[in-house]
Amino acid sequence: MGMELINPIDRDNLRAKIRNAEPFPHFCIDNFLNVDFANEVCNSFPEYQSAKGMGKEFSAVNEKYKIQITDSKKFPPAIARLNALLASPEYVNMWSDLIGIPNLLADPELSGGGIHETNSGGRLDVHVDFNFIESRQWHRRLNILIYFNKDWQQDYGGQLDIWDNDVKKCYGSFAPIFNRACGFATSEISFHGVTPLTCPPTVARKSFATYYYTREAPPGWTGQNHSTIFKARPDEWMRGHVLMPAESTVIHAKQGLRHIKNAIKKLGGK
């Protein structure tokens, strides 16, 4: 088991395309995996209802009807093989070379990654990802997603879209079709999202996500770490001016309440 599970790549051509992509380095590769292996992985995905009991389901304004399974012990054998491949030194070093980021590290905990399934009506608003894992002092540098959706129709939605920093211009929109890999260098300007899903209730958008890090800080690092930052698309006035601010207020209130409770516990222990 190893790199033979990935179809041959013209690395010189891909390297040039990635590094010249606007507004930040990104890529889309079709027929990424050996087709037999891709089929095996695809057939191993749990149904949406079953996946609910295996991971976390999101139901927020910015991200909803999405399940995330990060515990690799719960992966079916084929998906476990995929996970091992995507964390292998040969694979990680390949992407260090292609993306131009030395010393990339695979995340054994799959923080935010792993099996992703989004059901009809789901969405993921445009955002930049969290940029730092405090406990490990790791900087987030690269996202790679592999899609496992056969017979995906254009009108199902669910495209990965790539935006400029102001979320005014969309530079790319990629349907989550079977055996397609998409990815990008994560940074303070790597705004991206998933368009709302309008697929039938019996269909779920399935992907496997891996995120890569470095111990070294990226160029221009200010020392400020942040969680996910969401922005509304140009045609989403209500989301940008009402729904997102309301949700942000609720989140900050909950965080403040947790801080107060923790402070009370500390005082009680003295």
Any overview of this molecule?
The model has no long low-confidence stretch (mean pLDDT 90). Helix 2 packs across helix 4. 29% of the residues lie in helices and 27% in strands. By secondary structure, the protein is α+β, with helices and mostly antiparallel strands. A hairpin with a 6-residue loop joins strand 8 and strand 9.
Strand and helix map with partners:
Layout lengths: L10 H10 L5 E4 L5 H10 L3 H5 L3 E4 L3 E7 L7 H10 L2 H11 L5 E2 L7 E15 L3 E2 L4 E10 L12 E4 L6 E5 L6 E5 L6 E3 L9 E11 L14 E2 L6 H32 L2
Antiparallel strand pairs: 1-10, 2-3, 3-5, 4-12, 5-11, 5-12, 5-13, 6-7, 7-10, 7-12, 8-9, 8-11
Helix pairs in contact: 2-4
Give the DSSP E fraction (strand runs of 2 or more residues). 25-35%
Mean pLDDT: 90
Rg from C-alpha positions? Answer: 19 Å
Number of domains: 2
Number of strands: 13
Structure in a nutshell:
This protein has 270 residues and is of the alpha+beta class. The chain is 29% helix and 27% strand.
What keywords describe this structure?
270 residues; alpha+beta; Jelly Rolls; 2 domains; 13-stranded antiparallel β-sheet; 13 strands
